[in-house]
Task: inverse folding
């Protein structure tokens, strides 16, 4: 496939009709909450655009993010994304390995200097020079710095790349950090989630290819189109929350009635993601619909927020030494001051007597 | 660490530690103080001290006729926000969860709508208490930093809690964090300011009851 070929030409060769492209553009425009009129312009722009060169780097990760994209339930959407981009390097998906693979990366970087997009999944190990995660004889840290140097933009796919994720969880033995801690001079789009929603990855890439710019982001670098609302804002169990009807355990009456899962630890009220609207497995369900509270996986440090089953309103502390120590100290200081008063009284009455 | 993580974690933990320190300090220093022996002769037919104490406590719960109606507003308004605060603290589901996390105790919650109504009424009563304090020349003269601070740290959690539940004014995580931080401030201030009356009211009123029951003439 030639890099010079437009996406439209490629789709024609593949037998994908203009109508299908229009439908796809319409779908993307709707999931990204763009005005309906933009879908025609989007289809037009997509047809005339060149395929975006993408280098996909996998660092400290579990491959769940790639799985989410490639094994998605709606293959036409995610297949389509591979028609929009020229995936020049992806360790998990590429057929070649070893020297040839690294060559492909170097070549893509050279040919598309300043124009390629780097997608990263996984966090970057920094401890001891980043030796805890390496590929092809290079630490992830080196590979990232080298690859990002001439990139147009970076997309951190998954919570590990966006916020450090599970490798970053206490005690963080590898010194894992998010991509944004290392690369500070390039635009970075964060698409967190463990894993992220396939449509959020596809939609963001399509937006980038279509409009040639970064979509509107929130304060954590996430596209507002997918991360603008909390799960709680869009949750179908919200009326139960508002009425104060909560499941107290996973198999009680409330749980069977589909009541709100706040008390069993749902983090939906503080989690920004599109699970409640786009859902998973082709729109079949999402965790809350399947009976489990939201874990808050698209938020920073979700692993260390005091426990998945601890309600948001409970405290996450509980250091017995601090609490017990403070109580004991208070009692001792109180007793000492009373003792002092007794002494003073005794000496005063002694003086009076003498 | 986000503001919410700070509020739920270290802020509450240290605030609670200071709260416990202060409570135990004040209670221990008070109860271990040397007590002067009452050398007065009890009046004839004086009941036992405990009975007088209980009677005194109950009697102080409502106005005595000589005071007339002058303080009826303060009394009723005081009841409204005290009962309101109790309903909010012990009736709202997430609060019960918080207490459960601390003590292991749990009980059924009230519907959120009821709590919201009670919160609005409580807020109005607290506002009325402040207005009265500011507009009554005598009260204003008697009021100091301690009174205003105690009012503020009591009102802030009610207001921020109401905003958090109704998702008004900011993102929920910010509102929840601010609400929890306002509780942390409440806990820190509680033992050292006038809020400590929540503990001392039982002691002082009982003591006064016992005192009146022993001395003076039969009433
Ligand atoms: S289940 Fe979770 S997200 Fe849904 S209403 Fe309850 S707390 Fe909110």
Result:
């Amino acid at each position: 496939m030639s890099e010079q070929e437009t996406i439209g030409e490629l789709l024609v060769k593949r037998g994908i009709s203009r109508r299908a492209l229009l439908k796809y553009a319409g779908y993307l425009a709707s999931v990204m909450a763009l005005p309906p009129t933009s879908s025609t312009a989007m289809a037009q722009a997509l047809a005339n655009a060149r395929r975006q060169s993408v280098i996909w780097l996998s660092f400290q990760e579990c491959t769940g993010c790639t799985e989410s994209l490639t094994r998605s339930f709606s293959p036409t959407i995610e297949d389509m994304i591979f028609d929009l981009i020229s995936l020049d390097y992806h360790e998990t998906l590429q057929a070649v390995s070893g020297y040839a693979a690294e060559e492909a990366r170097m070549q893509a970087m050279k040919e598309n200097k300043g124009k390629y997009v780097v997608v990263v999944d996984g966090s970057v190990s920094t401890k001891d020079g980043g030796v805890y995660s390496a590929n092809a004889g290079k630490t992830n840290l080196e590979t990232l710095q080298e690859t990002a140097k001439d990139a147009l933009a970076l997309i951190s796919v998954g919570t590990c790349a966006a916020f450090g994720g599970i490798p970053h969880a206490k005690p963080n033995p590898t010194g894992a950090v998010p991509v944004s801690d290392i690369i500070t001079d390039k635009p970075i789009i964060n698409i967190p989630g463990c894993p992220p929603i396939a449509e959020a990855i596809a939609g963001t890439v399509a937006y980038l290819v279509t409009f040639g710019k970064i979509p509107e982001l929130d304060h954590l670098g996430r596209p507002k189109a997918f991360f603008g609302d909390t799960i709680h804002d869009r949750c179908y169990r919200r009326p139960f929350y508002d009425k104060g009807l909560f499941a107290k355990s996973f198999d009680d009456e409330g749980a069977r009635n589909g009541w709100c899962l706040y008390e069993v630890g749902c983090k939906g009220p503080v989690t920004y993601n599109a699970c409640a609207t786009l859902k998973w497995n082709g729109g079949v369900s999402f965790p809350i619909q399947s009976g489990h509270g939201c874990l808050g996986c698209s938020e920073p440090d979700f692993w260390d927020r005091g426990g998945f089953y601890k309600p948001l309103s409970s405290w996450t502390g509980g250091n017995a030494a601090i609490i017990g120590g403070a109580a004991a100290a208070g009692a001792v200081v109180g007793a000492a001051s009373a003792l002092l008063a007794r002494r003073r009284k005794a000496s005063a009455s002694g003086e009076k007597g003498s | 660490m986000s503001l919410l993580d700070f509020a739920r974690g270290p802020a509450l933990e240290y605030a609670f530690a200071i709260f416990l320190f202060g409570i135990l300090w004040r209670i221990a220093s008070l109860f271990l103080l040397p007590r002067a022996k009452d050398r007065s002769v009890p009046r004839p037919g004086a009941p036992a001290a405990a009975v007088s104490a209980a009677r005194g406590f109950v009697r102080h719960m409502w106005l005595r006729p000589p005071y007339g109606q002058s303080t009826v507003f303060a009394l009723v308004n005081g009841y409204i926000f005290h009962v309101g605060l109790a309903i909010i603290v012990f009736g709202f589901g997430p609060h019960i969860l918080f207490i459960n996390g601390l003590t292991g105790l749990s009980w059924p919650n009230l519907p959120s709508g009821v709590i919201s109504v009670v919160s609005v009424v409580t807020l109005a009563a607290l506002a009325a208490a402040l207005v009265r304090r500011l507009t009554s020349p005598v009260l204003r003269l008697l009021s100091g930093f301690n009174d205003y601070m105690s009012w503020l740290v009591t009102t802030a959690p009610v207001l921020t809690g109401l905003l958090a539940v109704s998702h008004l004014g900011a993102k929920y995580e910010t509102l929840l964090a601010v609400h929890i931080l306002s509780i942390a401030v409440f806990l820190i201030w509680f033992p050292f300011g006038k809020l400590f009356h929540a503990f001392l009211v039982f002691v002082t009123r009982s003591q006064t009851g016992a005192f009146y029951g022993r001395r003076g003439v039969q009433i």
Summary: Chain A has two domains: 7-40+48-221, 231-349. The pocket of iron/sulfur cluster is lined by residues A 231-232, 235, 237-238, 241, 260-262, 266, 268-269, 288, 293-294 (CB under 6 Å). The mean pLDDT of chain A is 87. Chain A has 17 helices and nine strands.
